[in-house]
Each structure stands twice: as C-alpha cells, then as structure tokens.
Amino acid sequence: MVMFLFLVVALAVVVAAVTLAVVGGGEGGPLPDVAPERLRDPLPLDRPVGRADVESLRFPLTVRGYRMADVDDALGRLGAELAERDARIADLESALAGSRAAAPHTAPDAAPHPSGQEERQ
C-alpha cells in the first residue's frame, strides 16, 4: 500500500512538472523560435573556387539532413565553375593543336647548335 501511494505521488509530481513546462510557467512566456542555421562559410564570390574551399565546405544539419537550398547553391556554383574550366581547357588545347600544326617541321639534323655556332668537323 505504501508503494502504491509513493507511485501516485511521484506520478502527480511528474504530471505537474510537465504541465508547468508546457504552459510556460514563467514571465517570459514560451521560448521564441530559433532561427535556422545558415551556411556560415559559403563558397567565395570574388575568386574561383579552389580545392581547399571545397574541402572546408560544411553544411549545417537540419531535422532531415542538410538544407537543400544550401546544397543546391553549392552544387550549382561548382558545376558552373567546372563547366567554365572545361571550356577554358578545350580552348587552350585547340590553340595548342593549332600552333603545333602551324609550326614548321624541322629535321633534327638542321637544328642549330645551342652555342649559336655550327659545329665544325
């Protein structure tokens, strides 16, 4: 019987504590909503993205993982920069191929001596 009374009193105390916590039981009222975490270190806007920028990129966690908007922005920026670099590489490779095709083909025997004078035998 004593154990039963103890459990009833303990249950009443727990219910009272939970009720006070839910109602707010204070002068400040309910707690304000917390602003969602935002990406603190976005990719740099004033220069191209480097390897260190990508390695240091960390997304804030939300209830179901990462904020989709932050991840989409970062992936969009990386995709645009990779496309720009690929286009630049293709331009440089085509310019290099064009300059190699335009260069006169010289035989190795006709190459001048490094000292600027022909070798005499």
Explain this structure.
The structure is a single chain. The protein has 121 residues and is mainly α. It contains three helices and two strands; from the N terminus they run ααββα.
Q: Structural class of the secondary elements?
A: mainly alpha
Computed over alpha carbons, the radius of gyration is: 36 Å
Our measurement of the CA-to-CA distance between the termini, rounded to an integer number of angstroms, reads 123 Å
Spatial strand order of the main sheet: 1-2
Order of helices and strands: HHEEH
Classify the beta-strand content into a percent band. under 5%
Task: Give me the number of helical elements.
Answer: 3
The whole-number mean of residue pLDDT values reads 79
- Percentage of residues assigned to helices: 40-55%
**Overall morphology:** rod-shaped
Regions with little confidence, pLDDT below 50 for 5+ residues: none
Number of strands: 2
Biggest sheet statistics: 2 strands, antiparallel
Keywords:
single chain, 121 residues, mainly alpha, two-stranded antiparallel sheet
Topology (elements, then pairings):
Layout: H1 2-23, H2 51-56, E1 61-62, E2 65-66, H3 68-102
Antiparallel strand pairs: 1-2
In short:
This protein has 121 residues and is mainly α. Helix content is 52%, strand content 3%.
